[in-house]
Design brief:
Blueprint lengths: L3 H7 L4 H12 L1 E2 L2 E2 L3 H12 L4 H16 L8 H5 L6 H9 L8 E3 L3 E4 L6 E4 L3 H14 L2 H8 L9 H19 L6 H17 L3 E2 L6 H11 L14 H21 L6 E2 L11 H8 L8 H10 L7 H10 L3 H6 L1 H21 L4 H9 L6 H28 L4 H9 L23 H18 L4 H14 L8 H4 L2 H28 L5 H20 L5
Antiparallel strand pairs: 1-2, 3-4, 4-5, 6-7
Length: 543
């Protein structure tokens, strides 16, 4: 679908939902596309923003019009599937072709008018293309049989307006249930939409990954945490929830910009024909993008499989610091604020269940327990831990003759010169890409030969250091007996890939993104600010 928000949706986690919308986009009638791009975009907005209920009600009234405004021997399907391309003029011509409509149906120039006994209703021809597309969506998503059963009370004689409303409500419940498995929860949608609108307002109606920064995160939380300035029921009381939402949106926006080569900002507005994006549509579509797995997930899987590369505390520290390169670059202060004051607020929430206003005020005045410099030191210590684990992994993989040992050697010693292993001068240059794997195998063989023979060289010293590192670790998966098991060796191979990525990201975060910030000055300012906000939320009369 042509617009940016629908291109986002095509990358969604719900393949079924994407397929439903794609089918509608590709549906043909009379050798042409049945639905226009504009109609497809309107339908996608209805679905992803969950604004379908009014349209479902209109559709049910149109079903009544199709039954009693056409030929008496036709069912409602004839209007939707035997009227050609879904255009306003086509629907007008379909109704005008019949002269024996039910007396309650009035066929006008702009609309059909249904005179129910309890309340009349009109459906314009201009709305019928969208309602027809919605009918296609319901048949695909819910299924024809449940849909027809829901509409059956409308088929046995002209129904009342209330009967139509009841059928529409039943259909809307079925759509709600379906979307519960294919779209993010409503509350999460509202949070993200509120934050995106806040960010776009601050950025002169232009939204991109670069729009979301540390000030945006902090200012949004300060403005919305107490709930007084948001009338949409958005619960963003904790700083951590705002940070996590912002981090996710940074990753998704950057991914979308890279995926679709959308250089620069994405325009926010209501001129959909020119490609502008409604903030609500953008938010719901963004939540459906499937992001690449983070290396920490792979590391966690290795630990779960029996090789304890990290313990619980170490993993928590890595999870605090690492949120992807894009987030580390865009939100360095927010990451430390989340670590220090996010923990502090979590402690206050626990204490709130036990303490009254006076103890809460005392707890707030004593916060935080840690400061930013302490957290930085802890992250630096994780660099040392990761290097030890990389050395231990190198020892296991080298002993097993696994090629990943060479990748670890380069990661541990970037200046290591093994270029002469690439190809033996005596080997012929076949000039054919098909022999690349042959050269690679020979290079690996020479790598392990040198590793075996070069006791005093760089590789030999690395091998000795790695052996010592492995023996110094007393954790699950690091015994001599476990080292001989094929399944454990396989897990060390997976760990090697994850460790290289995690070490690289953490080093870049420490050396590039947070090294130049005056953390001593910032903790002083932030402590006053967060204590004041916590007092508003939990202290005094709110305690």
């Amino acid at each position: 679908m042509g617009s940016p928000e629908n291109r986002f949706l095509e990358e969604g986690k719900s393949a079924e939902l994407c397929a439903c919308l794609q089918i509608i986009q590709e549906t043909t009638a009379d050798d042409s596309l049945k639905y226009s791009d504009k109609t497809c975009r309107e339908l996608a907005r209805l679905i992803v923003c969950r604004n379908y209920a009014p349209a479902v009600l209109e559709l049910c009234h149109l079903v009544v019009g199709a039954i009693y405004g056409g030929s008496h021997d036709q069912r409602y399907e004839a209007l939707f599937f035997a009227s050609g391309p879904a255009r306003a003029g086509g629907f007008r011509a379909w109704f005008a072709a019949f002269t024996d409509q039910h007396k309650a149906i009035d066929i006008g120039r702009q609309e059909i008018f249904i005179s129910y006994a309890d309340k009349p209703f009109a459906v314009t021809y201009g709305r019928m293309p969208l309602l027809s597309a919605l009918m296609e969506f319901l048949m695909t998503a819910i299924g024809y049989a449940p849909l027809d059963e829901t509409l059956s009370p409308l088929l046995g004689g002209l129904p009342s307006h209330k009967q139509v409303s009841d059928a529409a409500n039943d259909l809307s419940r079925q759509v709600y249930s379906y979307l519960g498995e294919h779209l993010p929860p409503v509350q999460e949608q509202r949070k993200s939409q509120s934050f995106l609108q806040f960010a776009s307002d601050r950025a002169a109606a232009e939204l991109a990954a670069a729009t979301i920064n540390d000030d945006t995160v902090l200012d949004y939380w300060m403005a919305h945490a107490d709930g007084d300035s948001d009338d949409r029921g958005v619960d963003v009381k904790t700083y951590r929830s705002v940070f996590r939402m912002a981090a996710h949106l940074v990753r998704v926006l950057r991914y979308a910009e890279d995926q679709y080569r959308m250089n620069g900002a994405l325009p926010i507005g209501t001129d959909f024909e020119s490609g502008e994006i409604d903030p609500g549509d953008l938010e719901t579509a963004l939540a459906e993008i499937e992001l690449p797995d983070q290396p920490l997930s792979a590391l966690h899987n290795v630990v779960s499989a029996g090789v304890k590369i990290t313990n619980k505390r170490e993993m928590e520290r890595l999870q605090e610091a690492l949120h992807g390169e894009d987030v580390g670059r865009a939100l360095p202060k927010s990451i430390l604020r989340n670590a220090v004051f996010g923990d502090a607020q979590a402690g206050l929430v626990q204490a709130l269940r036990r303490a009254g206003p006076l103890p809460m005020a005392q707890l707030i005045a004593a916060l935080p327990d840690d400061d930013y410099q302490t957290r930085r030191k802890q992250y630096s210590q994780m660099i040392d831990h990761l290097q030890q684990m990389m050395l231990a992994s190198f020892h296991v993989l080298a002993r097993a003759g696994k090629p990943l040992a060479a990748s670890l050697a380069i990661a541990l010693h970037p200046d290591l010169d093994i270029s002469d292993l690439a190809q033996d001068p005596n080997e012929p240059d076949w000039g054919d890409s098909n022999v690349v794997s042959f050269h690679a195998e020979n290079a690996m063989a020479r790598f392990f030969e040198r590793l075996e023979a070069d006791d005093n060289g760089e590789l030999g010293k690395l091998s000795g250091t790695a052996r010592t590192a492995f023996k110094s670790i007393s954790r699950q998966g690091f015994s001599q007996a476990e080292m001989e098991r094929a399944d454990i060796v396989e897990q060390f191979g997976k760990a090697a890939i994850a460790l290289i990525a995690v070490h690289k990201e953490l080093s870049r975060f420490l050396n590039n993104h947070i090294a130049s910030i005056d953390w001593d000055q910032l903790i002083t300012v932030d402590t006053t600010l967060f204590r004041s906000q916590f007092t508003t939320l939990y202290g005094g009369q709110n305690g």
